[in-house]
Amino acid sequence: MFKSKFFSLVSLTLLPFALAQSEYTNLPEVPPGVFSASARTEIRTTVDAAWDALTDFPNYGAWNPFVRYALVTSAKNISLPDQRAVEGNYLFFRVQIPPLPLPVNEDTPDNILHTQFAIERITHVQPELGRLAWDFLAEIAVKSTRWQAVSDIGNGTVLYESHEEFNGPLAGILKATMGESLQESFVAQGEGLKLYLEGK
C-alpha cells in the first residue's frame, strides 16, 4: 500500500513537468489564421549547428526537400554578397510543394510539376533566442509570417520548430488547393534538417 501511494505521489509530482516538456515551444504566440502549417523535429545536434544550417541559404539544396534554392537579395532584387540572414533583406525561393522524397542533395532534380517561386522579407533574426522569421510577399492576396526556432532540450538534442499562419482573401483557396502539401513540406524540411545534421 505504501509503495502504491509513493508511486502515485511521484507520478502526480512529475506530471506537470512532463506536460510542460510536451507543450514546450520557443515560437512566439501569433494570432490564428485561416489555416497553418507547422513542424516539430528533435535532432541530435547542437543549437549552433542547427542555426548555421537554417541561415546558410546557399546550402539549402544540400538537405532541404522543400526549399531547393534560396537567394538573399536587396529590395531591388539584386543578389547580395552576404548571403546570411539580415533583417530587412529579401529572399528569393524556389520550392517544391509537395516536397521531394528524402534524402536530397544539391544535385537532386526538381519535379517541375511541383515547382513554385516565392519572395520573402526577412523580419526577425534572433540568434540569442534561436529564432528566425520572414514574411511572404503576395500583396493582399495571402499574408503570412513563417517562424522557425531551434532550442536545446537536453541530452544533446535540439528541438527544431517551424510554424506559419496564412491569412488574406485567397488564404481559403490556398488551403483547399495546397494546404496538405504545404504541411507535408514543412514536415519534410524538419526531417531533411535532421538527416543532414545527424549525418555529419
Automatic annotation (TrEMBL):
Organism: Alternaria atra
Protein name per Swiss-Prot or TrEMBL: Uncharacterized protein
This protein's record includes keyword Signal: yes
Secretion signal span: 1-20
Keywords, in A-Z order: Signal
CDD domains: SRPBCC_4
